Amino acid sequence: MFELCVDSSFSAGHALRGYQGKCESPHGHNYKVRVTLAGDTLNDIGLLVDFKDLKSAMNQATDQLDHQFLNEIEPFQKENPSAENIARHLYRSIKTRLTTEAGGSIRIKKVKVWETASCAATYFE
User: What is the DSSP letter of 62?
Assistant: First the structure.
């Protein structure tokens, strides 16, 4: 089995609805995102996936969030823009892009989102 990881980042603001504390007020983070792919088969030149293809899919997904107030964009108009929900949103968005580009041969193992250097949430299916 092979794993491949790529890191990216974006900056955004949010407010956690229903939270009892400071995070209920608007504030921002410099988020770090790590996408981990897994697979047991390499292509004919020995790659699980080209790093540039994964970076492209990640950048398309994170660019939609970068420098935004997350509460005002889908899907966070209805669900809280928590690190957990951001990780799930990015997982699904990147999965859709990679499946289209790679014809379904790539499996996303997990997406990890850091709000701070020491606090992160991971989503996987």
Answer: H
Q: How far apart are CA 76 and CA 86, in angstroms?
A: 9
Q: Domain spanning 2-123 has what CATH number?
A: 3.30.479.10
Q: How far apart are CA 88 and CA 122, in angstroms?
A: 8
- Is residue 81 a contact partner of residue 29, using CB atoms and an 8 Å limit? no
Torsional sign, CA 54, 123, 86, 91: positive
User: Residue 104: pLDDT above 70?
Assistant: no
Q: What is the pLDDT, as a whole number, of residue 13?
A: 98
Determine if the pTM surpasses 0.90: yes
Q: For residue 16, give both structure tokens.
A: 């956690």
pLDDT at residue 97, rounded to an integer: 85
Residue 99, pLDDT > 90, answer no
Output the DSSP codes for 6-39: EEEEEEEEE--TT-SSGGGS-EEEEEEEEEEEEE
